[in-house]
Amino acid sequence: MYLVAGTSKLTCKGREAAAICRPQGSDAVVAHCWYRRKREATPGAERRRSTVKAEVPVTTTDERVLWVDAPSRKYPIIFRNKPSLHDSELFAPHISGNSVLIVTNETVAPLYLHRLREGLSRCPQVDRVEECILPDGEEYKTMDSLRAIIDVCMQKRLDRKSTLFALGGGVIGDLTGFAASVFLRGIPFIQVPTTLLAVVDSAVGGKTGINHPLGKNMIGSFYQPHAVIVDASTLKTLDPRQISAGIAEIIKYGLICDEEFFNWCERNVSKMVSLSPGAIQYAMERSCQCKAAVVAADERESSGYRAILNLGHTFGHAIEAATGYGTWLHGEAVAAGMVMAAEMSRRLGFIDEQVVRRIEAILTEAALPVRPPPSMNVETFLTYMAMDKKVERGVLRLVLLERLGKAIVTANYERQVLVDTIEYFRRLYQEQPENYERRLAHLRPK
Ligand SMILES: NC(=O)c1ccc[n+]([C@@H]2O[C@H](COP(=O)([O-])OP(=O)(O)OC[C@H]3O[C@@H](n4cnc5c(N)ncnc54)[C@H](O)[C@@H]3O)[C@@H](O)[C@H]2O)c1
C-alpha cells in the first residue's frame, strides 16, 4: 500500500493501484476509499491486466482521489465529475490562511471565475478573495505576467499563509506556480486545471515557469502545489483542438510506461475525443498515476528518469519555436514529435515499423498531426533542438522508445541517424505533398 520512492513500477491496476496512494493519518481514509471505490466501480479490476479486451472501466463515483508522493511534498489530486467549483468543502481543507488570490485569464474568467470565487468565499477561514486576470496565450507566459501576479500579491498584502489558485490551462498553472514559489520565498498554491492537457500533465509534478524569448520554459522552479483539484465538467467548454492536444499527452503515457494503457487508448480514442465520461475519467486518472510515479521517483530530474515524460518534446519544442508559439498547440507539436522519436527509434533498431504505424494511426484518429511542418529542414531542427534543456556538455540527450511501453533517455546514438530521421520526413513531403499535408489536418481552418 506504500509507494516506494524510486520505484519504476508503473503498472497500476486493481490492487497495484493502491501503490500510488500512501495512507497516512486522515489521508489513509481518502486513499483507502479511492482504492475501494475503484474496485467497486470496476468489478474484476485485479484481472484487468490479463484481460486485454476489457472495455472502459466506468467510473460512476463523483469524487476520487490520487496522491502524489513527491519527496518535497505529498498532495492529493481530487477528481470531481460534476460542477464543483462553487463547493467550499472541496477547497476549505487545503487553505491555511485567510486570504486567497485566484489567477486566471480573460478566456477562463467569464466561464468559471465566479463559481470558484463563490466556493472560496464560503470557506469559513477565508476573509478575502482577490483576483488577477491575465491576457490569454502562450505569448503571455512571460516575466511581465509574473510581475503582474506579484504586483497583486504586494498590493493586496498577501502573507505567507495566503494561497494562490491557478484557474486555467498549463500557461496559467506554470505562471501561478512560479509566482507562488518566489513570492515571500514560497507560499501555498493550488492547481485548478481547466484544460485536458493541464489535468493530465502540467498541473501535476511541480514544474513551474515562464518562457524566455530565446527558449520555452527557460526560467522556473520545481515547486509542488498543495493540491490539484479537477472539476472535469469544465472540459466541456474546450475547443476540440485543445482536447486533442491533451489526448496527445495521454497517449504519451501509454508509450513511455504502460503498453496496456496504450492498447486501451487505441480502443477508446474516439470516446476520449468526445469526452465520454467513463473513458476520459479513466484516461485522466491513469495518466496522473503514471506522472505521479515518475515524479515520486525523480522529482527534480536529477537521475534523468523524469525526462522520459518528454517523449516527443525535443522535436516538438523545436516545431513550436520555429513556427511561432501558438501556431501549433503544445500537444500537437508533441504528437508530431512522438512520431519523429518513434521513427528514430525504429532506425536504431529498437522498435519495428508496425509500432510506428500504430502510433501514427492512434494520433491521426485523435485528430493530431503526425508529420512535422514541411517548412522545417535539418538545420532548423538542429538549431532549435540545440537549445533543449536536455543538452549536456554540448550533447543532446533524446527520449526514444526502447519498445512500446518503455522509453529511454539516451545520448548514445549516431548524429547521422537524427539527421536521417529529419530528412526522411522532408523526403515524404517532396514525394507526396498532398498526402503529407493531409497528415497536418489540424492546421486547416474548420
Ligand atoms: N509544468 C509542466 O509540467 C508542463 C507540462 C506540459 C505543458 N506545460 C505547459 O502548459 C502550457 C500548455 O497548456 P495548455 O495546453 O493547457 O494551454 P493554455 O493554458 O494556453 O490553454 C489553452 C487554451 O484553452 C483556454 N481554456 C482553458 N480552459 C478552458 C476551458 N475550460 N474552456 C475553454 N477554454 C479554456 C485557454 O484560455 C487557452 O486559450 C504550455 O505553456 C506548456 O509549456 C507545462
UniProtKB/TrEMBL annotation:
Q: What class of enzyme is it?
A: lyase
User: Which compartments is it annotated to reside in?
Assistant: Plastid, Chloroplast
Q: Where is the 3-dehydroquinate synthase N-terminal domain?
A: 132-244
Please list the reactions this protein catalyses: 7-phospho-2-dehydro-3-deoxy-D-arabino-heptonate = 3-dehydroquinate + phosphate
Q: What is its EC number?
A: 4.2.3.4
The Gene Ontology terms for molecular function here are: 3-dehydroquinate synthase activity; metal ion binding
UniProtKB keywords: Amino-acid biosynthesis, Aromatic amino acid biosynthesis, Lyase, Metal-binding, NAD
Q: Origin, by domain of life? A: Eukaryota
Q: Which cofactor does it need?
A: NAD(+)
Instruction: Outline what the protein does.
Output: Catalyzes the second step in the shikimate pathway.
Q: Which HAMAP family match?
A: DHQ_synthase (MF_00110)
Protein name in the entry: 3-dehydroquinate synthase, chloroplastic
